[in-house]
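In this section we walk through a basic example: taking a raw amino acid sequence and producing a predicted 3D structure, encoded as discrete structure tokens. The instruction is simple. Fold the sequence below.
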Amino acid sequence: MLPRLREQGWPAFSVNWTGSFMTKRACSVRLGGHTTQSAPLQCELPQGSPISPILFLLYVQPIVER
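The resulting token sequence is shown next.
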């Protein structure tokens, strides 16, 4: 994802922010007043985030242009 943003000419600030957004993500589950320990996530773009579909479209743009 980050190399693709660089190829598209995005500013370093935006690329760095995106990298920070996509790394070191974790989740926990709360059920009945109990919360599990935090576990690292293996995916990069979180489901439900408003920015995830935008980043996905930026990633696939070169494929669509072919």
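Looking at the output, two observations stand out. The mean pLDDT is 90. The first helix runs from residue 2 to 7. In the next section we compare this with other chains.
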